Every structure is written in structure tokens, then in C-alpha cells.
């Protein structure tokens, strides 16, 4: 399941969601539908290891499993 960036036309919120193909996504702020999928930003070369390590460290501090 890929993570997509979305923008809600109702409340203008921008967020990421893990969405299965065929599932309808809803805005976590206003529960609205009809979301616009945005072009995701790409990690700059050489930064992905550091970003993954930071994600793992944050997950460990918050006490949950990391998907990195």
C-alpha cells in the first residue's frame, strides 16, 4: 500500500494517507471526500538513509513500530 499526499478541497488541509487501491480516502480533519492527490516530493540523493534513521528514532521515542 503506497502513501499518497492529498489536499482536501473543503478545508484546504494537506496530509499523507496510506491507501489501498480501490479504497476511497477521506479527510482526517473534516471527513470530506473528493480529495485531490498531489505529486509527492522526492527525497534528495544521499538523504534517504538519514531520513529513514530519523524516522526510526522518532518511532522509537513514541513507542511504536517503525515501517522504515
Q: What would your notes on this structure say?
A:
Pfam families: Zn_ribbon_8. InterPro entries: Regulatory_FmdB_Zinc_ribbon. The chain has 68 residues and is α+β, with helices and mostly antiparallel strands. The chain has one domain. It has one helix spanning 48-62; strands at residues 3-7, 14-18, 36-38. A three-stranded antiparallel β-sheet has the order 2-1-3, with no helix packed on it. β1 and β2 (14-18) form a beta hairpin. The longest helix has 15 residues, at 48-62. The mean pLDDT is 80.
Q: Outline of this structure?
A:
By secondary structure, the protein is α+β, with helices and mostly antiparallel strands.
Outline type: extended
Overall average pLDDT: 80
Strand order of the largest sheet: 2-1-3
How much of the sequence is in beta strands?
15-25%
Organism: Novosphingobium decolorationis
InterPro entries: Regulatory_FmdB_Zinc_ribbon
Protein name: Zinc ribbon domain-containing protein
